Amino acid sequence: MHVPDGFLNAPTSVATGAVAAAGVAIALRKAQGELDERTAPLAGLTAAFVFAVQMLNFPVGVGTSGHLMGGALAAVLVGPWTAVLCLSVVLLVQGLLFADGGLTALGTNISLIGITTVVVGWVVTRAVLAVLPKRPASVVPASAVGALISVPVAALVFVLLFAFGGEASLSLGALTASMLGWHTLIGIGEAVITGLTVSAVVAVRPDLVHAARGLRPALQLKQADGTLAPAPAPEPEPVGAASRGSVKPLLIGGGVVALALAGIVSFFASSNPDGLEYVAEGEGFLDRARDHAFGDFALADYGEVGGIPVGVAGILGVAVVVAVGVVLFRLVAGKSRPAGAAAGSRQENAVR
C-alpha cells in the first residue's frame, strides 16, 4: 500500500509528513531502551527481511495482489519503537532508490505503514498475549492476529486521509468498502507470513523475540520434601565466549534467507497491481498519481526501468537497507549505554 505522489493534496501530505517526522523522532529516543550491542544487528536484519518480503507480491483475488507491510512482525521481533525505525528505513530506501512510493507521500507512507501498522500490530499482539498462556509459543498466534488487524486498519486510515485531502471526488462509502475488503484479504496473507516468521525465530531463539520477554517461566527445583524452590541463576559467561547465546548464527541464517527471497523468489512475485492501486483504478482516481521524481533511475520499479534483473535489484536493496539500518541502530544503541558501561567495555577489550 505504497501511496504515490498525487493521491493526496499538499496540506494533507505536509500534515502526514509532520506526523511521520514526530513519530520517527520519538522512536529514535524510545528505541534506546530496546536496543543494545546484541539486538542492534538483529534490528538491521529485520529491516532487510521486511524489505525482501515486501518485494514478494502474492495474489489475493482476480487481478490484484498484496504484500507484507511488516509493522506487526517488526514490532514483535525488535520492539515497537525500533520497528518504526525499521519500516522508516525500508520506506526511505524504496522511495529513493526504487521509486516505490512517492517522495511527497513519504510522510504518508511512514504514517500508514511505518507507524499505524506498528502501533496496531503491537497493541493487538499484547492484548491477545494477555489472555493466552504465558509462554513464548503464545507470541506466534498473537502476532498473527496483530498482523491481520493492522492491514485493514491502515487501509481505513488511508480512507480517512483521502476524505480530508483526496485529489478526486468519489463515494467514500464505496472507497471504504473496496479498501477494507481487499486489505482484509491482504491481512490474511500478512498474518500467515508474520506467524511463520515469528514461529521460526521463537523455535530457535525465543530470548531474542521482544514480545516474548517475560513469558519464559522461571525454573524451579523440587526439594527433598517435595516443595519447589527457584533455581539458582546461571553463572555469567566470559566476555566473547562462544555459546548458544551468540546471535551470529541467527544473523547469518536470516541474512541468507533475505538474500534468497530478494534475489531468487522475487522473480516469481505476482505482477498484478497491489490492493491500493487496484482500488484506485476501480474507483477512478489512479490517473491522479504523478510520475515519481526518480522514475527514470535505473533501479526504478526494482530494475525494470534500467533493464536490471529484479533479483539483482533486490540483493542491492537488501545490502543498502542492512548498511543503513545497522549504522542507525548501532548509533541508537550506543546512546543508550551509560558512560561507565562503555568505559568498562573498552577496558575488557584492552585486557583481551
Automatic annotation (TrEMBL):
Keywords: Cell membrane, Membrane, Transmembrane, Transmembrane helix, Transport. Gene3D superfamilies: 1.10.1760.20. One of its GO terms (biological process) is transition metal ion transport. It is a multi-pass membrane protein. The keyword S-adenosyl-L-methionine does not apply. The chain crosses the membrane at residues 7-28, 40-60, 72-98, 110-132, 144-164, 184-204, 250-269, 308-329. The keyword Oxidoreductase does not apply. Residues 249-333 form the PDGLE domain. One of its GO terms (cellular component) is plasma membrane. It is found in: Cell membrane. This is Cobalt ABC transporter permease. It comes from Jiangella ureilytica.
